[in-house]
Amino acid sequence: MQNIKNNMKFSIIIPALNESAWIEKTLTAVLDQTYKNFEVIVVNNNSTDNTARAVNDFITAHDAADRIRVIDCPTKGILHTRNAGLHAMTGDVLVQLDADSIVYPNWLARAAKHFENKKTVALAGAYDYYDAPFFLRYIGLFVEMITMPLGNWYVQKRKFGAFMIGGNAFIRKWVLDDMGGYDINHTFYSDDLVTARAVAKRGYLKFCFNLTVKSSARRHKQLGYRYVQSTYNKGTSAVLRGKPIPRQTEEYNHPR
Predict the structure, then answer these.
(1) Cβ neighbour number for residue 51 with a 10 Å cutoff
(2) Bridge partners, 129 (sequence order)
């Protein structure tokens, strides 16, 4: 699947705040891609564990210095890390990926295929919360793989914005440059939709069920499923009404 007409380069940006226990599995899956034109930038977000060392050890063990690098972002906050990645990247498309996510080998190849449509400026995929209870895992998959693509199409048609899951998204670099980077002034629980709304003003954001990645439900387990979902719902409603919730410093202590 490498023989795609538009052989664009993907820059996979992985924010990492104390992720030494998770990051190796994520990087292993990324290196196993069938589509080879990519780089990985792990943004160490002022970790207090050995995240940076774990990544550097992984790079050495897999002879991946030409593929993976670590940069530092001392200011806590996922959008700060993504802006740092944006400034450091050399690719055509910035890929947002969480440090606890496992991608399938054809993940990038499928994304490249979707980007053959020049009107598509961004892509989003779903999460499969592989370690969540059975019922919640499959309800989540139904919502994200069936309901969200339809909702995303509808809200863009009505010019309300767009839907995007922040840990599994692809945005053309020129779009982010035109936006002036990520807007750091909004809450963790609505920043994805703030970004998606800005992206949708510059082209079509396509929600793709075949770009699903496996991700941990650790935040839901630690904070409570009901709390996390209700807070996301509140953030979504605020963005669609054009009144995103302002950022709160303490929220960046949440596991992500």
Answers:
(1) 23
(2) 215
- Give CA separation, 172 vs 10, 121, 122, 156, in Å: 9, 6, 6, 18
> What is the model's pLDDT at position 188?
58
Q: What letter does residue 9 receive in the DSSP assignment?
A: P
Predicted TM-score (pTM) of this structure: 0.85
Question: Which tokens is 188 given?
Answer: 């963790």
Report the share of the chain in percent with pLDDT over 70: 80
| pLDDT per position as a tens digit, 208-247 | 989 999 988 666 556 556 655 666 556 565 555 666 555 5
Cα 42-169-76 angle, rounded to 5 deg: 45
Residue 43: the pLDDT is 97
H or E segment at 102?
strand 101-102
The CATH class given to the 10-253 domain equals alpha beta
Residue at 128: amino acid letter: D
CB environment 116-146: b (16+ within 10 A), e (fewer): eeeebbbbbbbbbbeebeeeebeebbeebbe
Dist CA 76 CA 188 (whole Å): 12
Domain ranges of the chain: 10-253
Listed residue (4, 37, 2, 3) closest to 117, CA to CA: 4
Q: Report residue 139 as tokens.
A: 């309800």
Identify which has the larger pLDDT, 235 or 180. Answer: 180
Q: Which residue has the tokens 């199409």?
A: 153
Judge contact between 101 and 15, C-beta under 8 A.
Answer: no
The answer to whether 95 touches 109, Cβ cutoff 8 Å, is no
